[in-house]
Write a structure and sequence with these properties.
462 residues, alpha+beta
């Protein structure tokens, strides 16, 4: 078999098959570097050794080398750049990623700052933390006020009405539960140190304070949780024994009821004292007004000047009627009798006497010879009468308010109303181990992330 095929031409000695129409590549001589690859032809140019594509008529193919699509000529500067880029050595491919020292440092810091503390916390929570029992209680302060008896008297009781406090009793009770006073009162009933020291092997959740009351108040803030919303107070009390937790809750309810009763007693005593003072003041005003009226009557020798004036007016009216009758009679005599008739003179004398009497009665209404006029006397009496009437109305209202305050003081208007009685736990709900562990792990992770970011930020600034 011949080495050449008349149809396909000579085959190359080695390498891949050569496409038809291209010369076979020559192998480089031994010891010589391989020739650099030829640059790729520019866009729109045919490779060397190959004819440009032609159209159907032998001319250039449309879109191949027309004036609009003709490529820009290659400048010597561009050829020099291409030759320099071809002569640069080709960089080797990137090596696989490997652990660096900083990676080990991050892993060690994560183990030290997150993993080990989380494992220690889990070991403590699940092995040494003692179970705690919770007792729940909820209560509110109810206030009932009776209708004021003074309102029945046409609103006169509003003059001396009892005012209400602007501070809610529930707000006072909310502050009282968190106060040192309540801790001292409950501790006098129940030994809180002994109750909260029943876990000697649990220094975290057990009582770790001393004999001072301040340490006991701090432990109270840890063991007693309070929630206040819309006038209702909810409490959660923790203890290492279910009965102890319920006893503390009962003591809180009892002491809260005592406080409300004390506030109720103070409010009732204040209202009663205020009503009593107003009653005494009204009695003094009424006594003074009546005394002034009595002195006025003794001074002017008049029981009722208004009645005297009305009597004087009646006398003047009667005299005027008599005068009119005598004038009519005189007219008749003068028309029918002789001029020297004695009846005419007697009638004229009677008319003159009646007129003099009317003038005398009218002068009593005014001041004569320095004497005080009857009209002024009547004005003074009317002023004293108005003062006496106002004093009597004030006394009536004060007396009604005092009776209402005394009736209100006889009953309890404020009281503690528990809507959730202190519960007795059947199972230990605390500590919530899984929740605590997740919180600790999340907190440690956040600290580790923030510390790592700060460390690398400071390192990059150097």
């Amino acid at each position: 078999m011949s080495a050449q095929d008349p149809k396909s031409g000579p085959r190359p000695q080695t390498g891949t098959p050569v496409p038809p129409g291209q010369p076979a590549a020559q192998a480089p001589a031994q010891g010589q570097p391989p020739a650099p690859p030829k640059p790729a032809p520019a866009q729109g140019q045919a490779p060397q050794g190959q004819p440009r594509p032609q159209g159907p008529g032998g001319g250039p193919r449309p879109g191949g080398s027309g004036p609009a699509n003709r490529p820009a000529p290659v400048t010597p500067e561009m050829q020099a750049r291409i030759q320099a880029a071809l002569q640069q050595p080709v960089l080797p491919p990137a090596s696989p990623a490997q652990m660096q020292r900083r990676h080990y440092g991050m892993a060690i810091s994560f183990v030290v700052m997150v993993l080990i503390p989380a494992l220690l916390s889990a070991a403590y929570i699940y092995t040494r933390a003692v179970d705690q029992y919770a007792s729940y209680v909820g209560f509110s302060v109810r206030s009932e006020s009776a209708p004021n008896a003074g309102d029945v008297l046409g609103g006169l009781g509003s003059l001396v009405g009892v005012t209400s406090s602007s501070t809610s009793d529930t707000d006072i009770l909310y502050k009282f539960i968190q106060s040192r006073d309540l801790v001292e009162r409950v501790n006098s009933r129940i030994d809180l140190r002994e109750v909260w020291s029943k876990a000697p092997g649990d220094p975290i959740f057990g009582f770790r304070g001393g004999a001072s009351l301040e340490d006991l108040v701090k432990e109270w803030d840890r063991k007693v949780r309070i929630h206040y919303d819309s006038g209702m107070i909810d409490l959660r009390i923790l203890a290492f024994d279910a009965q102890d937790a319920q006893d503390i809750a009962l003591a809180i309810v009892d002491e809260g009821g005592i406080l409300i009763n004390q506030l109720n007693d103070i409010a009732r005593e204040d209202a009663l004292r205020y009503a009593r003072d107003e009653l005494e003041r009204a009695q003094g005003l009424l006594r003074t007004a009546r005394q002034n009226v009595t002195e006025f009557r003794n001074r002017y020798q008049l029981v009722d000047p208004v009645a005297d004036v009305q009597g004087q007016i009646g006398v003047v009216t009667s005299l005027q009627q008599q005068l009119a009758e005598q004038l009519v009679a005189l007219g008749l005599l003068q028309a029918n009798a002789q001029a020297n008739d004695p009846r005419i003179s007697q009638t004229e004398l009677r008319i003159q006497v009646i007129r003099d009497q009317i003038d005398a009665e009218r002068q009593k209404f005014g001041s004569v010879n320095g004497e005080e006029a009857l009209s002024d006397v009547v004005g003074q009496f009317e002023i004293l009468t108005v003062d006496r009437q106002f004093a009597e109305a004030s006394y009536t209202a004060a007396l009604a308010s005092f009776e209402s305050a005394r009736a209100e003081a006889a009953r309890q208007s404020r009281y503690l109303a528990p809507y959730i009685r202190p519960t007795l736990a059947q199972e230990a709900e605390f500590p919530q181990r899984l929740r605590l562990l997740l919180m600790i792990a999340g907190f440690l992770t956040v600290i580790w992330v923030i510390g790592s970011l700060i460390f690398y930020s400071l390192r990059d600034r150097r």
